[in-house]
Design goal:
The protein is mainly alpha-helical and 323 residues long. The chain has nine helices and four strands. The strands form two sheets. The protein has a two-stranded antiparallel sheet with strand order 1-2. A two-stranded antiparallel sheet has the order 3-4. Helix 1 packs parallel to helix 6 and helix 5 runs parallel beside helix 8.
């Protein structure tokens, strides 16, 4: 028995390491686009939610795993069903969790399958193995997912690992939706773990150990939930900051254009003012010239009149003398 437990522990340890590595790689290569999820992803999510309420349907959880070796015909039927599923390319746009719809990237569908595998191991194996997965491995996986999302989006690592040119507001909004989804689902995963702890220790007289295990599970998953919630806030803050900067730059550009246009209008008005002043001066000078010419003409005319009067008077005097 001790050898079997040791081998089982080694197997679960290797499973956890590979699951961590696979989940991290999935997020690193995620391009954060709405490419749809496998059609059966909602079924997996529903299994987790039902199990959190105490309804663990073993047949549904093991469906398609081909672990019923006593029934060869059933195994062949399952293999055929799996092949048929592989040939179909049906996708769904969103997942429904507690009456809320979440649009998620394709990597999240694969990670949900991994979460289901952890929960199935918790259901199948008791005591220490169960406790290690619930208290350590599963919270560690979820924390790694949260950290990698942070590094990929807020840390802009996706521009290197996934080939994205820039981290846009759309990527930020998408990652925010993912973190909101996990912050809610963590509660259901925690309840599944607690439910299995209770089911496996109904006849256990050492209640103090069970109480401590429950406290540790609640503590670990509360930390995970807060991490995802904090990242939702960080992503929203970054999103709002980018939008504010974008709007501000647009408004500044508009203000600069208005200022330039206003300066051009002022310069045009000044030029028009100078031209109008020049025209007024020219007009005044023209009027003065006309008045001067008229004055000179009148003066000449008056002199001519005076000359004629003098000549006429002299003529009359000459006539009187000759008479």
């Amino acid at each position: 028995k001790e050898i079997n437990n040791k081998q089982l522990f080694n197997f679960i340890q290797q499973f956890h390491k590979k699951s961590l590595k696979k989940s991290i790689q999935l997020i690193e290569l995620e391009i954060w686009k709405d490419e749809g999820l496998p059609i059966n992803t909602q079924n997996i999510l529903d299994l987790i939610i039902n199990a959190s309420n105490g309804d663990f349907d073993y047949n549904e959880w093991t469906k398609g795993l081909s672990i019923d070796f006593n029934n060869i015909n059933k195994k062949e039927e399952m293999e055929k069903e799996e092949k048929d599923k592989e040939n179909t390319t049906e996708l769904r746009k969103s997942l429904t969790l507690h009456s809320q719809n979440y649009i998620l990237p394709s990597s999240m569908g694969i990670i949900l399958i991994t979460i289901k595998a952890y929960l199935l191991l918790i259901h199948l194996f008791k005591n220490k193995i169960n406790n290690i997965i619930s208290q350590n491995y599963l919270p560690e996986l979820l924390k790694a997912i949260n950290l990698k999302i942070h590094q990929s989006i807020l840390g802009a690592q996706a521009s290197k690992t996934a080939g994205l040119k820039h981290i846009t507001t759309k990527h930020l909004a998408f990652a925010c939706e993912v973190c909101r989804f996990w912050s809610i689902l963590v509660n259901d995963i925690s309840r599944v773990c607690l439910s299995e702890i209770d089911n496996n220790n109904n006849n256990n007289n050492n209640s103090e150990i069970i109480i401590n295990v429950r406290k540790n599970i609640i503590k670990e998953f509360d930390e995970v939930k807060e991490l995802f919630k904090d990242q939702v806030v960080d992503l929203y803050d970054k999103l709002v900051s980018i939008m504010r900067d974008t709007v501000g730059s647009v408004l500044n550009r508009i203000n600069v254009e208005e200022f330039v246009n206003r300066d051009e209008d002022v310069e045009d008005n000044e030029e028009e003012g100078e031209e109008s002043k020049k025209d007024s001066v020219d007009k005044l000078e023209g009027i003065e010239e006309v008045e001067t010419k008229e004055g000179e003409t009148k003066e000449v005319e008056s002199k001519e009149v005076e000359t004629k009067e003098i000549e006429s008077e002299e003529g009359e005097e000459t006539k009187e003398v000759s008479t």
